Amino acid sequence: MPLPVLSAPPERVDIQLGERSYPILIGAGLLDDPASFAATPAAASALIVSNTTVAPLYAQALQTALANRFRTVHLLELPDGEVYKNLETLNLIFDALLGHGSDRKTVLFALGGGVVGDMTGFAAASYMRGVPFVQVPTTLLAQVDSSVGGKTAINHPLGKNMIGAFYQPQLVVCDLGTLQTLPPRELSAGLAEVIKYGPIHDMAFLDWIETNIDALVARDPAALAYAVKRSCEIKALVVGQDEREMGLRAILNFGHTFGHAIESGLGYGEWLHGEAVGCGMVMAAHLSQRLGGVDAAFVERLTRLIERAGLPIVGPALGADRYLELMRVDKKSEAGEIRFVVIDKPGSAAVSSAPDALVREVLAQCCAG
Ligand SMILES: NC(=O)c1ccc[n+]([C@@H]2O[C@H](COP(=O)([O-])OP(=O)(O)OC[C@H]3O[C@@H](n4cnc5c(N)ncnc54)[C@H](O)[C@@H]3O)[C@@H](O)[C@H]2O)c1
Ligand SMILES: [Zn+2]
Fold first, then answer.
1. What is the pLDDT of residues 194-252, one digit of tens each?
2. Start-end ranges of CATH 1.20.1090.10 in the chain?
3. In the structure, which protein residues have their CB atom closer than 6 angstroms to any atom of ligand 1?
4. What is the percentage of the chain residues whose pLDDT exceeds 70?
5. Which CATH superfamily does the domain covering 184-218+229-366 fall into?
6. Ligand 1 pocket test target in 32, 48, 52, 53 with most atoms within 8 Å of CB
7. Catalytic residue from among 85, 196, 229, 273
8. Measured between alpha carbons, how far is 343 from 188 in angstroms, rounded to an integer?
9. Global pTM?
10. Quick check: helix, strand or coil at residue 195?
11. 280 and 258 in contact (C-beta within 8 Å)?
């Protein structure tokens, strides 16, 4: 699949974290351009970690782009899927690193979506107590969210993302051309995380998304470029102030308390994460309205936008008791009290508890059955 050729220089967004600062480059055709990787630390060897879906599409281009920077560039293809985001698959990365005689300077490249990015990042954090790594995200979700900010993790049978580390990459390269091969459901799932940034931080961005939602769904390159850039800017701002989620960073979880309940209640993989977050944002908006932060018109507006992005807006009929039970074990809950991210006024979010009775009203209104 040829990537669109683009002569314009890439957009650049900086994550400001003192000595852990790094750039995010955003543009089309970056993957096969050696200049994209000029900021990569000097080393003898690199390992590209990808999966069986993404590697056949893009690994060759990346290998060629890196050929002049490293003496050897190895490729590891992991099995594709969230079910493989576990200790066993992580071990395949360590096997490859040790098998190739990789040292403390070996650079890991994560080529794929959030699953590959989270696993490769965690492998980089722990191999020889830390080797440099570069994110090359190829899904919209990974470009606007998971590749940025340094959260890395694998799943445990008893909980998602339960084993992990904060570990920042050296560089993030978002090649927008890769989004052209993304399955439509995955594109919509990524749009959920793009939309999220509007209500929590930037109503002008929400206006822009509303105007451009059809272009985004149609994968218009210019629209995607702006959406990725603005999303990364907002994530950079939040992460720059609260790298380890002691407070502010939690607002990035708007829609996620309800969303995680949908994901685990249905069984992981039934709905994509972004689909659950889209629907979860509808629920969180209704809760925000009941708590007085936004009006009915705001809720209606956000709901229509989520629907136009190709995302579900009606929650599955798990039953209110089950939803509440699932939300009480969410990572954000404290001493059994569920913590919701709510909109306290348009463009601003806060973490709040809510009376069960209000949550039940929201669930009754937003769920099927
Ligand atoms: N670290 C963080 O801050 C953070 C934030 C949000 C989500 N996550 C994690 O991210 C993961 C979800 O990431 P995701 O939505 O990218 O899912 P994913 O990595 O599973 O990718 C989705 C699917 O698209 C395929 N794919 C990837 N790029 C493609 C391309 N360009 N063309 C065709 N197919 C392509 C993948 O092989 C996969 O089948 C979850 O594990 C979640 O926990 C992490
Ligand atoms: Zn998310």
1. 999 999 999 999 999 999 999 999 999 999 999 999 999 999 999 999 999 888 999 99
2. 184-218+229-366
3. 51, 53-54, 57, 80, 82, 85, 112-116, 118, 138-139, 141-142, 145-146, 149, 151, 161, 178, 181-182, 186, 189, 273
4. 98
5. Dehydroquinate synthase-like - alpha domain (1.20.1090.10)
6. 53
7. 273
8. 22
9. 0.96
10. helix
11. yes
